[in-house]
Specification:
heterodimer; A: 201 residues; Aconitase, domain 4; B: alpha/beta; Aconitase, domain 3; 5-stranded parallel beta sheet
């Protein structure tokens, strides 16, 4: 797992509710068998016109927003399909942090697994950030260690994160490796509950 | 205080619990498909890790597969993904229902059909519609590819214990109202995130009176309300459905299983974190008009006026949906014309769905200019539908009868809706571009999709006779 400690970067506003993972990475790009190279397809149908030309009005295409690494989003970001290609695409494009009032469950989990930090802030705090990040340059400093978001305009907010993910991300631990250390416990469980499941092969 | 079915299954599957961590939960069944697994297998290979329990893992290919000319896969990238699943299953000794297998089909159709899905189990798959399997009283949820890799390597997952939400659907459904209408109605009323952070238990007379296939339709779309999983307590219908299926124990073992499964239902004094009550009598056939499943209205009504939106954010979202869908505010649902009809997907591609659609079109013809395709959920469904004459009814009405797969639900294969074309679809998501760039999806029941194919626009199946006159 990639570690996350602290970062400072440009924030960009995407003020749309219920942005689903079909928008984040459309299905025609899910056929690759690698985890890399998805950034070029991020928000494909919004970034590009049907004829393949750049849609200059789309948030991420405005010149002042180029190089943004923090996405300020609205409620229920990442709903729909469980495709992990969504955080892979966001990450590959350059996003390291997503701030929203709420996230869909599976997407939230998928971000954490990839070291993309999904931060839930209060609605009024997100509304403020959505407004401020329309006036570039607007920078935020996100510290996982302090669980804080600081704005170049003096904005300050704190966020919660499950202690498990706090430690996993700060240390960049390999989750599977840690679980495999509980191998004996897993084997005991299997011995006690052998009737739970049907063996297929 | 007693326990809910959700807590009972959860507690039985906790392998390890310690302060400051989610629970480490055991997974009884892991379903795998071609799109969300290749990177997980690569991860195992990179660390030289084996698949811990290939005997609790089952794979099929469904998302990419062609529904015509099965053996001529023209898209080389899709073909590579299918070939990769095949070689991964071979390398890691995982059973695979391959393209030419009589058991191939949509992963959420074949799991129950083969009896892989059983009450009390924990089931995961790298697909959000894994919630479907909850219809059998199992705790089933979608996961990402990192979690797929974790389950392959350890047969466990770190998961925070979910909150519980009771959704009671009381009363009874009128004629022409289906399970699809129930779930669309619930989402239209409570939005696309009422279930976030929860596992839903569906109960009440309407649910109790539903067949297993109808319960699957309901559980399938709980994710569209934000809930990763939903569950229905197993009952005699569940046991009857499972009896004699390929991976269900036989004889005394099965009877022992039933005794155990009967203990799963929520205790009378169980408490839920939240509850919602729905009156089944109020539900009409539903049609989605917008770009998320909550943007749905009864067929005999209209799309909203912008002035009816409660918030600025909602007004913006509705305005944007109107532009994408090419609709005017206040427009009657029955005035929306369709030129494409899709009957299929893990929501509505089972035998009962095909029967319901066939009943509507028997002896009639699809309207001129409408392309209607029927994609059975599995090869087994296809075979049964052919044997009882349903395929014939569809073909005589001018519908195309296809091979099984996910098909036009997400259009990863060649089955797509054209830009600006309206499609009456029995699938689960009406997101922008879901069925093709610029495609305009309307989510409906199989009966409503079939009726729309006959008329070239939406009609209320309850008035079909009147419409014919």
């Amino acid at each position: 797992m990639s570690s996350f400690k602290e970062m400072t970067g440009k924030a960009v506003a995407m003020d749309r509710t219920n942005v689903d993972t079909d928008q984040i990475i459309p299905k025609q790009f899910l056929k690759r068998i690698e985890k890399t190279g998805f950034g070029q397809y991020l928000f494909y149908d919004w970034r590009f016109k049907p004829n393949g030309e750049l849609n200059e009005n789309f948030e991420l295409n405005l010149p002042e927003n180029h190089g943004a690494s923090i996405l300020i989003a609205n409620e229920n970001f990442g709903c729909g399909s469980s495709r992990e290609h969504a955080p892979w695409a966001l990450m590959d494009y350059g996003f390291k942090v997503i701030i929203a009032p709420s996230f869909a469950d599976i997407f939230h989990q998928n971000c954490l697994k990839n070291g993309v930090l999904p931060i839930v802030l209060k609605e009024d705090e997100v509304a403020y950030l959505l407004k401020q990040s329309r006036k570039q340059p607007y920078e935020l400093t996100v510290s996982l260690e302090n669980k804080s978001v600081l704005g170049s305009d003096g904005f300050k907010a704190e966020f919660d994160i499950h202690p498990y993910w706090y430690n996993m991300l700060l240390n960049g631990w390999d989750e599977i490796e840690l679980t495999l250390q509980l191998e004996e416990r897993i084997r005991e469980y299997e011995a006690e509950h052998s009737g739970n499941s049907t063996r297929i092969s | 205080m007693g326990n809910t079915i959700i807590e009972k299954i959860w507690e039985k599957h906790v392998v390890h619990r310690e302060a400051g961590k989610p629970d480490l939960v055991y997974i009884d069944l892991h379903l795998v498909h071609e799109v969300t697994s290749p990177q997980a297998f690569s991860g195992l290979r990179m660390k030289n890790r084996p698949v811990r329990r290939s005997d609790l893992t089952f794979a099929t290919m469904d998302h990419n597969v062609p529904t015509v000319n099965r053996n001529q896969i023209v898209d080389p990238v899709a073909k590579n993904q299918m070939d990769t699943l095949r070689s991964n299953c071979l390398e890691f000794d995982i059973p695979l229902a391959d393209l030419d297998s009589p058991d191939q089909g949509i992963v959420h159709v074949i799991g129950p059909e083969l009896g892989l899905t059983k009450p009390g189990m924990t089931i995961v798959c790298g697909d959000s519609h894994t919630s479907t399997h909850g219809a059998f009283g199992s705790l089933a949820f979608g996961i990402g590819t990192s979690e797929v890799e974790h389950v392959l390597a350890t047969q466990t997952l770190w998961q925070a214990k979910p909150k519980t939400l009771k959704v009671e659907v009381s009363g009874s459904l009128g004629p022409g109202v289906s399970a699809k209408d129930v779930i669309l109605y619930i989402i239209s009323k409570h939005g696309v995130k009422f279930g976030t952070g929860y596992v839903i238990e569906f109960c009440g007379d309407v649910i109790k009176n539903m067949s297993m296939e109808e319960r699957m339709t309901i559980c399938n779309m709980s994710i569209e309300g934000g809930a990763k999983a939903s569950i229905v307590a197993p009952d005699d219908k569940t046991f009857t459905y499972l009896n004699g299926r390929k991976y269900v124990p036989e004889g005394d073992d099965f009877l022992d299983n039933i005794l155990e499964w009967k203990q799963l239902e929520s205790d009378d004094d169980a408490e839920y974190d939240n509850a919602i009550e729905i009156d089944g009598n109020e539900i009409a056939p539903m049609v989605s008009w917008g770009t998320n499943p909550s943007m749905t209205a009864p067929v005999n009504s209209r799309v909203p006026y912008l002035s009816e939106c409660d918030t600025e954010a909602e007004r913006k979202a509705v305005q944007r949906a109107f532009e994408y869908m090419g609709l005017e505010e206040g427009q009657q649902i029955t005035d929306i014309n369709v030129t494409k009809v899709f009957i299929g997907s893990c929501t509505n591609s089972r035998l009962e769905d095909l029967r319901a659609a066939a009943e509507v079109i028997r002896g009639k013809k699809a309207a001129a200019g409408v392309q209607a395709i029927v994609v059975p959920g599995s090869q087994n469904v296809k075979k049964m539908a052919e044997e009882e004459g349903l395929a014939q009814i569809f073909m005589e009405a001018g519908f195309e009868w296809r091979e099984s797969g996910c098909s036009m639900c997400l259009s990863m294969n060649a089955d797509i809706v054209n830009p600006e074309e309206h499609c009456a679809s029995t699938s689960n998501r009406n997101f922008e571009g879901r069925q093709g760039a610029g495609a305009r999806t309307h989510l409906v029941s199989p009966q409503m999709a079939a009726a729309a194919a006959l008329h070239g626009h939406f009609v209320d199946v309850r008035n079909l006779a009147a419409v014919e006159v």
